[in-house]
Batch of 3 targets.
Target 1
Amino acid sequence: MTPPAYVVQQEGIRTPLELSIERRPDPEADGLSRADAAWPRRLRRIVRAGLTHWGRPDLTETAELLLTELATNALRHGQGDVIGVRVYLDGARCVIEVTDGSPLRPELRQAGPTDEGGRGLFLVEAMADAWGTSPDGTRTWCSISLCKGPDDPMHPAPVPALRTYPQFSIPGDPSAPSRARAITRSALSIIGWQGDLDAATAVVSHLVENAVAHGVMPDFPGESVTVRLCLNADGQLVIDIDDPHPKFPDFEAALAGELGRGLREVRRSAEVSWFTPPDLGGKTVRAIMTPGEADL
């Protein structure tokens, strides 16, 4: 058996980080074998060490999640005996490549609300600046802008966060609530939310639906809604939804259900507020949920 190996060379930060992983599928297992299931966690440690060595620790959280999704998909669906992983800096981007030997191209699919998996590519599409496959379909790649991280706008109401999920943006169209639900369920598991998963997912969906209905301007196609999720020091879930409209003149009426059920439903299980961060050009609607207090 050829042992898996990885290399972080010392010649310069442009030298790729390269790995080879031996697949050990179990035909009797439902999902990944125990040996294969151990690799995503190892890969997160490896890419974290590599990016820190390259002086870009600000990219680690996003890169860890993207690599986890691509590698898990390759381990689950690849056809070769070896999975190849390559991470490198190329100009103004960090590129993550995973080769699995399968000519079948990965496809976005809509996972059901109770599905445990099937959301990997939705997460990749939401968090990466770009993603795609090689012409023969055996290699899947994604990239992160090197401008992300330290240059993100400062939030006017900072939350002391124990764990944060990388923010993701969704096109401001009717598909936004379902896309948000698909990503949120996996995101909440990743950050370790101890409360009601279904209720928190419903809160995000309601807030995104509200943002699309009242915050996205119909005369400006291509606008998006941004979602941020984190756990604060008290174990509460903080949900921030950004939209392009800087005003919320009927906020109290919306909370009372006079403008629809969305925010009224959210208010049953979360504290709701809104504010206009400087330099955002729009507004943020915030919901804070406490484990054990969900009523949705």
Target 2
Amino acid sequence: MKAYKKMKMRILMFLSFFLFLSCTSDHSFSLDEKRQTIVVHNLLVIEIESDSSQTDEGHLFFITKENPYDTKELDTIRLQGQSSGLIIKKGDSSGYKKTQIINLLSNRKYTITHSGMGGRVRIQEYFWTDSTGNLRVDPTRKRKVGYRDS
């Protein structure tokens, strides 16, 4: 009986360990300014939103995987050209439209948020576009992880 309880405890510890590991996967993203690409680990939903109050052409983009069951760990979002394997929706005053290209407006501030499946996956980072529309990291603002404002 004692051997059975020991074995049961070992199995539970083993399963708990792997469940813990599955909850700590990397969901970060980074901008390659030179190539104008965003590399996302374990893409769920990426939202790119400008600080403009006008809902014009380059104000809001939602990006998800074309195949939600794809287990690829890294996805590349091209800011100058087409991205494969992704669904890109562009928001404007008339609603959302599917698009192939992300066209960011020049001289704007943008917030990029990777979210989904709980607070740990909500990562928010701040960027700005130069006069040619190239995205740059905003060094004056810190990345936010989770739903807290601190």
Target 3
Amino acid sequence: MEDVVKEYIDYTKEKANVDEVANKKLVSQNDKFLKLKEYVKNNPDKEFSICKEIVSEFDNMDILKSYYAANFVGHALHHEDSIDEEIGKSIINLFFRNIDKACRFIENASQLYNVDEDELTEDDIARITIDVMYRLDYKPLEAFIGIDMMIPPVMTVICTNQNLRKYFIDLGLTEHIEYLESYVHALSYIHIGVEACNKTKVLILTPKMQRGFYIEASDLSNGYYLITLLEAELYKKNLLKRYGIDNYEFNETVYNIATGKEYAKELIEAEAHQQYYTIYAVQKDGSYNIEDEKGELDLNKILYSDMSPSEIPDLEDTHILIMDSEGMWTKPIKWDISYFSKPHQKLNPYVKILDEISDEEYNIWMEKIKNYNFYLL
């Protein structure tokens, strides 16, 4: 191990003093940390091996200093097209190990003020005397004070690698994040990575044309994003008329924004040129019903704004959408760029048009859907 790396790692194993906890810049501006950064800058070929050495010592580091070490590693990973899964898991595990401690800090703070946790405010947190909390229980304090430094490396990891995204999701940290984001608002950014779908295969059926085809969607988090890219890909493959879409005008700016090739310079909208139903909308006679028992719109029966591809209802483990002009709103549904902008640089949102199914397969699927809903009634 290089001396500069060893000296930095030795520093991270030392308990952060109260001044470092009160002023986190003292950690980021520590001479050993600055020397490490300079060394890596001058020796880029050694960056990966140094990151692996640092990651291997996470368990032995002071909590606050481990956050900064993870942030350093995450910055290195951000410029790579792929991520070493061992390193990625180590970053996620570091976050996992300490988020519960960070939550415990809120409990400690509420006891200090003698109020319920839901009555604790950001101002209360800001007024806490660090040296008092440091003496009482420094680990939860460190875990909370520095947790914002974990957001960039966690986002880089889960947005770049879908296996690591699933690993993160399976740890079940959503409630912890939602609990803490009232006090550390930036934590809500992690939801962007969590909500982006992994590669998801969807069967699209078009009763108007009596055809069907599969698509693969990836890194999309809502239904409008899916529609934006789906209709654009059908246009690019000259398949619009084959699947019953008329009056579509391709907007290259919308497409480039949706795929992350450019960023919006002004407000811009996209719109649907078909209605998109889930299997629950199809009746026995082939008509559609999108209302619930009270006569109100049932969002489970349509592809609505917040439904990601992986949340589309399935039949026999196959996600299915029915694409039809019947039932279209009087005015087409439109949405702004917030629904089709790439939310993180490391995401790779796309829709691929896959194979078309045979006429026989189309008829079999439609009958299965009609019978499925008939027997549900």
